[in-house]
Amino acid sequence: MLHTTLMVVHFFTAVSIVLLVLLQRGKGADAGAGFGAGASGTVFGARGAGTALSRTTAILAVVFMITSLSLTYVGSRTVAPPSTVLERLSQQPKNPPVSNAPANAPAPSSAGAPAAAGSAAPATPAAPTKPAQ
Questions:
Q1: What span, in angstroms and rounded, lies between the C-alpha atoms of 48 and 39?
Q2: How far apart are CA 25 and CA 48, in angstroms?
């Protein structure tokens, strides 16, 4: 929820900065004042639009930096569960647990002992099988 809110504020701040920068006059725009481009003095006052737009741009730049840092902090603290098979496989342990018994060997049991109550193991050992030829 916080991440989404920060993203929305960040997006609108970025768009606002772009629009304000495009509205501002460049340094070479003063030369056009002789040809009728001095009309901005009537709308924004005698000092022109430079100070109001510059201050607003500076404030939005600070908001943009704060949201950038906040998004970085929130993004680094959020741990999402793996969403793909490759991410799940990369999080599994690389080395399986080590045991002394071979992988295909049956569990050790006493050959002549009776089976415990409720167990499915036979009371007598199984007959050895003949090797296939």
A1: 9
A2: 10
Amino acid at 133: Q
Mean pLDDT of 109-120: 57
User: Do 63 and 12 meet the contact criterion of CB atoms below 8 Å apart?
Assistant: no
Query: How far, rounded to the nearest angstrom, does the alpha carbon of residue 79 sit from its chain's CA centroid?
Result: 8
pLDDT digits (tens, 9 = 90+) for 17-55: 999 999 887 766 555 555 655 555 555 555 555 688 889
- The model's confidence at residue 102, banded by pLDDT at 50, 70 and 90, is low
Q: Which two tokens stand for residue 60?
A: 């939005």
pTM across the whole model: 0.47
Cα separation, 22 vs 2, in Å, equals: 30
Place of tokens 């295909």: 104
Angstrom distance (rounded) from CA 55 to CA 41: 17
Q: How far is CA 97 from the centre of its chain?
A: 32
H-only helix segments in 24-106: 40-44, 50-77, 85-91
Nearest CA-CA partner of 54 in 17, 29, 14 = 17
